[in-house]
Amino acid sequence: MPQLSDDDLATSFVAGEPEALRRIYEEHHRAVFSYCRRFVADQAPDVTQEVFLAAWRSRHGFDPASGSLGGWLMGIARFKVIDHLRGMYRNGSVPSSNLIDLSADGGAGEREIDLVATQMLAAEVLEALDEPAGTWVRMAYLEGRSHSEIADVVGVPLGTVKSTIRRSLQRVRRELEAFDDRR
Length: 183
Description:
The protein has 183 residues and is mainly α.
């Protein structure tokens, strides 16, 4: 399969092209696995596989216009982790004292699961930003620099810094929207 844009890859995936699934797995399995490992440790390979199987089975429900494939996959991973933890508790394979609180009213455990998924997805998106956009966003939001300071440091017009950061944040928001839609 020739190199496809993200939108074309998503379209191929929704259409059921197995090569698209392979490419999506190659691009996203590390993030999904890391997320699963955080909560289900030794069962992470199995839960990761469940995530991609569920994604394949429900691929027709993915709307590329509503967010990124990575965000959608992390949303599925969130549900699979919670399901797996609840199943472990119901089966008695792990004492409830070893599980995070997964109370039906969205207890601390589910908030932690959401927060970790959001942080991992945001970090992945920031890492994927083209340069210099990625550096400028990190300077603004991780180092706390103003747009004026960034423009002075990198020697570009203030308007360029502002528009580049705005477009980058729109991309981050789009990536996170698909995750939010899975809740």
